[in-house]
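Summary of Year 1 activities. Much of the first year was spent building the evaluation harness for sequence design. The harness presents a backbone, in tokenized form, and records the residue chosen at every position. We chose the following record to illustrate the format because it has been used consistently in internal testing since the harness was completed.
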């Protein structure tokens, strides 16, 4: 058959055989007819079989004797679901018969294509390079194809184990590996297997460690997408450069401090390590500080101050560097950080000498009034001359709340009976619930019969039996524990309760409620089995907080008595313990010998529950889908011994189908908040939906928002989003709780006004915080004396409220913003307001915009 007949028959192998019988001129003569067929096929490609398409592709590729034309033909043939050209063996059989010059040119054109083509084409590239006698081109597309080919997503463990030997044998590996550091997107594929391969290739001598280090640091310094940078960041961590290697690359390392936050943290830590080994110069520390103190991440800023403080103790030159570096932090807006910087500078100024006083005098101009006064006192600077101008504005914020101590254990059976009656009557306070639960366990261990007698007037034997089927709210659950005192719970059932079976648990139970139910089940079983004289998780404070020293003392007492500790009880205690850096407490914890004691010592040394990153999800199509903040959950290596119900509580808020679980308003109770009294971000991430619903529909839970914000720990996206949504609550008392929460965050220095303003704008846009309620809350906050705080929030919220179209009702917020800006002395034009102010018209919106713009731009 002729070549054209083979094309029509869809016989690609026949086309290859026919091409072998034709000379160059004969092949070129067939091109017009092939192009005609191609045009016909392109007009109705779905009517042609894959075999005919392949045959036509191979025929045209063989008949184009010019490599440029051949490449164009191969690139243009086929349908959207067409042939992956350079992976097909029949295509490559034609390519193999061409001259080396032809193959080299086609290889160059393939390699120069935009990266991201479909399929695994790297073997064809390597084959072409070998046939052409050329090195494998190092282009973006080739490098990405090389990475994907050697570690595809479906690679088995055995495939990955053989990766280093395969790569070591390939002559193209060194150039492609080094080229990987220049390719955008290579970091996305730099997973664990690839990072291990890089280390293996270094050990095998295929590439030089110094070269890899240089390129890795340079790549991170250039910046890029977080996902792309992450692979190289982890590679640098695994390379674990020595202090000498870091110091030799000091000029390359310093730019890392201006990169993405994780990269900056890694660069800062490694530079500090080199400095600790005496390998840096004082000017390097000052230069690093200048970069870091231009950032906003508190963790990096605090770490930099700690680094300055450590290094300043070496000599006068290093003390001078510490003072100069700390002074660079005076421009930070965080008052607490400014205070820390002042202390560092003051600590080392005596050794550094008075020559630095002029620099400090100039730097103090960046401080707030209070910090500037402290600087004058600390450094002995000249007091600024008194001014005839009016006294500067002073923000009035509430005092920081003090934890309310919880009374000691209930004294005797009568006191337990009295407290139990209060709980059953509806007292939902943490103090009543926790002291009663502990009292039942404690007094039953000491004298069960006396306690039984004392409880009879509160709960007779008939009612004790009825409590075995209680599904009512948390307040009455404790009656099950009282039933154990009465002897209504058998030993076999007690063991079942310890295994997670019991009347207070259900399959779809809300997680914080499940923790409480598990603790009640466990306390009930401990009473029946007589294993422990008291509970260790009973809080020290009314909000659920537990002093670390108290927990250490309790565990020591249980160890001395050789008594058991409930698993859920102990894990709840860990979640409640108030972080401490008291060396005496840490030392006492290390003296404990039980498994729980050793876990407590490790827990305290690690700072408690690991913080989890919170992510913001946008609002959905209606009020039932407000904006949401979620957390990924604990990593497997983060305290893996936690009780299953407690670990489940800390897991992502997802159901079995991967949908976000919506928590409703009746879930918010004081006892639920007391499960994580030192971790408000975690609480907000899990109860945010419930607070939002309570705020929207008038639920009682919204009044507990202040208790959530008073809890310890960072205040991240979840806390801010919850406060933002609650500022538009339906009930006045709920709005008051939201205002108090806003002011408390500001007083703690934990308020992120930009975040809260942005969240507020989104909450308004999706209808969670209606604009007929929000002004009431913000004016209430402002009139308490927090004009600057309210202005900072509104400044961040106004762009989202005014663009792309102003929301109805926003003029009232503009009026509040004008008042706050004027009272607090705010300046600096806001573009979105400036644009409105420039419009012609007499609406209230435009009038209020002009008034605000005038205040912000007044000289």
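For this record, the design step produced the sequence shown next.
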């Amino acid at each position: 058959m002729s070549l054209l007949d083979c094309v029509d028959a869809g016989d690609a192998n026949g086309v290859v055989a026919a091409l072998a019988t034709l000379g160059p001129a004969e092949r070129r003569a067939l091109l017009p007819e092939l192009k005609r067929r191609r045009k016909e096929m392109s007009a109705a490609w779905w009517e042609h079989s894959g075999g005919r398409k392949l045959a036509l592709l191979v025929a045209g590729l063989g008949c184009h004797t010019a490599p440029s034309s051949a490449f164009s033909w191969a690139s243009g043939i086929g349908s959207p679901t067409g042939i992956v050209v350079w992976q097909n063996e029949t295509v490559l059989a034609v390519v193999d018969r061409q001259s080396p010059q032809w193959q080299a040119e086609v290889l160059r054109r393939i390699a120069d294509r935009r990266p991201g083509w479909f399929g695994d084409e790297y073997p064809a590239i390597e084959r072409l390079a070998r046939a052409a006698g050329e090195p494998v081109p190092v282009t973006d597309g080739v490098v990405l194809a090389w990475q994907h080919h050697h570690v595809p997503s479906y690679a088995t463990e055995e495939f990955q184990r053989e990766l280093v030997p395969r790569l070591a044998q390939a002559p193209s590996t060194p150039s492609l590996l080094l080229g990987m550091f220049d390719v955008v997107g290579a970091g996305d594929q730099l997973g664990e297997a690839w990072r291990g391969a890089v280390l293996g290739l270094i050990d095998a001598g295929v590439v030089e460690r110094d070269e890899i280090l240089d390129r890795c640091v340079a790549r991170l310094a250039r910046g890029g997408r977080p996902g792309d940078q992450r692979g190289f960041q982890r590679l640098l961590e695994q390379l674990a450069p020595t202090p000498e290697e870091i110091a030799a690359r000091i000029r390359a390392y310093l730019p890392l401090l201006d990169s993405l936050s994780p990269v900056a943290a890694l660069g800062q830590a490694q530079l500090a390590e080199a400095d600790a080994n005496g390998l840096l110069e004082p000017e390097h520390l000052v230069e690093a500080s200048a970069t870091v103190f231009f950032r906003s991440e508190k963790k990096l800023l605090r770490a930099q101050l700690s680094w300055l403080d450590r290094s300043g103790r070496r000599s006068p030159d290093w003390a001078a560097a510490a003072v100069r570096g700390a002074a660079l932090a005076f421009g930070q807006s965080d008052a607490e950080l400014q205070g820390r910087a002042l202390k560092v500078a003051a600590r080392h100024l005596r050794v550094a000498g008075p020559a630095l006083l002029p620099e400090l005098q100039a730097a103090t101009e960046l401080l707030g009034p209070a910090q500037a006064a402290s600087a004058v006192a600390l450094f002995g600077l000249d007091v600024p001359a008194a001014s005839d101008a009016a006294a500067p504005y002073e923000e009035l914020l509430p005092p920081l709340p003090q934890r309310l101590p919880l009374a000691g254990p209930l004294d005797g059976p009568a006191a337990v009976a009295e407290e139990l009656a209060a709980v059953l009557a509806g007292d939902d306070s943490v103090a009543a619930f926790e002291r009663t639960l502990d009292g039942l366990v404690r007094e039953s261990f000491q004298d069960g019969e006396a306690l039984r007698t004392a409880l009879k007037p509160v709960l007779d034997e008939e009612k004790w039996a009825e409590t075995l089927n209680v599904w009512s709210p948390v307040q009455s659950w404790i009656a099950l524990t009282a039933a154990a005192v009465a002897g209504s719970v058998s030993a076999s059932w007690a063991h079942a309760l310890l295994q997670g079976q019991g009347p207070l648990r259900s399959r779809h139970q809300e997680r914080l409620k499940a923790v409480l139910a598990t603790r009640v089940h466990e306390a009930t079983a401990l009473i029946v089995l007589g294993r422990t004289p008291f509970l260790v998780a009973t809080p020290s404070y009314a909000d659920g907080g537990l002093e670390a020293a108290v927990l250490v003392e309790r565990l020591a007492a249980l160890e001395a008595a050789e008594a058991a500790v409930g698993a859920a009880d102990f894990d709840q205690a860990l979640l409640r313990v108030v972080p401490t850096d008291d060396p005496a407490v840490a030392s006492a914890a290390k003296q404990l010998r039980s498994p729980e004691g050793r876990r407590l010592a490790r827990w305290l040394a690690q700072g408690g529950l690991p913080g989890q990153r919170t992510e913001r999800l946008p609002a959905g199509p209606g009020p039932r889908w407000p904006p949401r903040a979620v957390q990924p959950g604990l990593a497997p290596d983060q305290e893996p011994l936690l009780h299953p119900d407690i670990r489940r509580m800390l897991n992502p808020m997802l159901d079995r189908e991967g949908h976000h679980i919506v928590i409703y308003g009746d879930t918010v109770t004081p006892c639920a908040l007391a499960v994580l009294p030192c971790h408000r971000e975690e609480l907000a991430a899990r109860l945010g939906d419930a607070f939002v619903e309570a705020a929207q529909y008038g639920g009682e839970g919204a009044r507990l928002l202040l208790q959530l914000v008073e809890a310890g720990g960072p205040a991240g996206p979840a806390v801010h989003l919850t406060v933002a949504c609650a500022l538009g609550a339906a009930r006045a008392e709920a709005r008051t709780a939201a205002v108090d929460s806003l002011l408390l965050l500001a007083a703690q220095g934990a308020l992120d006004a930009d975040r809260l303003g942005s969240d507020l704008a989104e909450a308004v846009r999706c209808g969670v915080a209606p604009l007929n309620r929000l002004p009431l809350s913000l004016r209430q906050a402002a009139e308490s004396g927090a004009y600057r705080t309210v202005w900072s929030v509104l400044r961040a919220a106004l762009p989202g409220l005014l663009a792309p179209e102003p929301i109805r009702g926003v003029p009232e917020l503009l009026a509040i913003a004008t008042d706050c800006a004027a009272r607090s002395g705010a300046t600096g034009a806001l573009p979105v307001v400036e644009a409105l102010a420039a419009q012609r018209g007499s609406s209230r919106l435009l009038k209020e915009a002009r008034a605000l713009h005038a205040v912000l731009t007044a000289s």
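Residues 77-83, 385-389, 461-472 have pLDDT under 50 and may be disordered. Quantitative recovery figures across the full test set are reported in Table 2.
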